[in-house]
Amino acid sequence: MKAYKPTSAGRRDGTVIEYKKKLTSTKSNPLKSLTAGGRSTGGRNNLGRTTNLNRGGGNKRTYRLVDFKFDKKDVPARVETIEYDPYRSGFIALVLYKDGERRYILVPQQVAVGDEIITSAEAKPKAGNRLPLGKIPVGTFIFNIELKPGAGARIARSAGNYAEVVAQDAGYTLVKLPSSEVRKIIGTAWASIGAVSNEEYRLVKIGKAGRARHLGIRPKTRGSAKNAVDHPHGGGEGRSPRGHRRARTKQGRPVGKGQKTRSPKKFSNKFIVSRRKPGRLMASRK
Predict the structure, then answer these.
(1) What one-character DSSP code corresponds to residue 246?
(2) Which of 5, 181, 231, 258 would suit a FRET pair with 25, their CA atoms being 20 to 30 Å apart?
(3) d(C-alpha 153, C-alpha 55), whole Å
């Protein structure tokens, strides 16, 4: 993490990650055959209506085709480069398989250029390798976790995140997720060993409005500053309280402060062994 000298108000509060120390190259030169075009939606749907607030602008970005299915099994691969991906918080690695194919993968911590990784049911549980949950020892940190075999990684994919294998039970693996929830996942689903790279990401301070606009983040107006017709928290004389027991979104749904938003009849509730415990830090993050 790098903090600049306070030569301006924005510099005083902003911090950046020292990419030169972590990446093979800081130039934006991904492998062209593993990229795709596209443009920002600006938070609009196919009808042009705003469905996601506070999005818009931002720098033009090239999408990298990252492999989350890992359907090339029992073929060793060597890490060629570690690169930045503007569409995700963790770093990605370009790997060269023994048969000559190249793919992008989400790279874990402790994996460097030249290291060899493999996706195999007989693989050793070392950082970067991928194997079925049922064969991973208890206490191992994992990421890129499948919920259904062959469906691709769904859980623990953001920077610095990892889950922990806490038990093996009758064909299921009990996994403690980053949210502190303990969930049963079928033992034939696959996961990668380690924790996602770029663990300093959550410590970054944007510092100034201009930097946020480059990221595609538009200004956000408080609900209490709006009129009653525009937000459930709006209206009233002067600085009025929100008038509701629970904080709400513009659409009227509960949000923030550790409030439960999960459907009580969700089909996958039977796989939850222990509910997440929202603490002070989790409840206060926006």
Answers:
(1) S
(2) 5
(3) 26
Q: Are 14 and 74 in contact (CB under 8 A)?
A: no
Tokens representing 254 are: 């509960």
User: For all residues of the chain together, what is the average pLDDT?
Assistant: 91
What local confidence, expressed as pLDDT, does residue 277 receive? 80
Task: For residue range 273-285, list pLDDT tens digits in order.
Answer: 998 886 654 444 4
State the pairing for strand pair 141-143/190-193.
Answer: antiparallel
Residue type, 109: Q
Which residue's structure tokens are 């972590």?
Answer: 22
Q: Cα dihedral sign for 233, 235, 240, 243?
A: negative
111 and 117 in contact (C-beta within 8 Å)? Answer: yes
Tallying the residues shown for the chain, one arrives at 286
The percent of residues in the chain predicted with pLDDT above 70, rounded, is 97
DSSP string, 136-163: SPTT-EEESEESSTTS-EEES-STT--E
Whole-number pLDDT of residue 286: 38
